# Entry
Amino acid sequence: MSVITKCSNELAPNPDKLTWRYMKLIIKDKMCLKNIIDIANVCFEVGHWSSHFKSSTTIIIPKPNKLSYNSSKLFRPIVLLNTLGKLIKKVIGNRLQFHVLSNSFIHQSQLRGLKSKSTTDTSLALTHFIHMEWVKNLTTSALAFDIVQFFPLLNHKLLLLILEKAGFDHCIITFFSNYLINRKTQYYWNNFSSDFFDINVGMG
# Structure
């Protein structure tokens, strides 16, 4: 499957101890691939995301060369999800993108995170806007900003309304309402392991 071709074989093992190197070998078997596709389809049909895929491990890594570590911003959390769930999530992402692009739901100015789009497209679009303003003898300025923690703070009800407006079937909307809740993670920091605790997150 092309969806994981670019996934690095050197990434740390996930909670299920299954790396992308082995997953790439597994899906070469037609029966294994069919079973994975069946799992993904059933998730959609019944509107349920398995608790196995909702469990993760969070590794908290101190950022190097800091004078002190008295702020959460000085640590970098790395979240490890089960590899099979990540594979199915990538397939789901491709399906969603195909749907919203085919019905022109995504605005033309949206370039980030879309297939067949790149930083070159962004540069060309920005250059075009600047030149259009020059023709009008206007000066153009650009403002860039990062939306910190956008997905964990995403309003779930709003997301479901957006999916409905995008024309997705009711079973898809039901699936995402279940996908977003009752997640659990176990975090490790300085060789200290916590118990699992519940989190409700966005699409991350």
Summary: The mean pLDDT is 81.
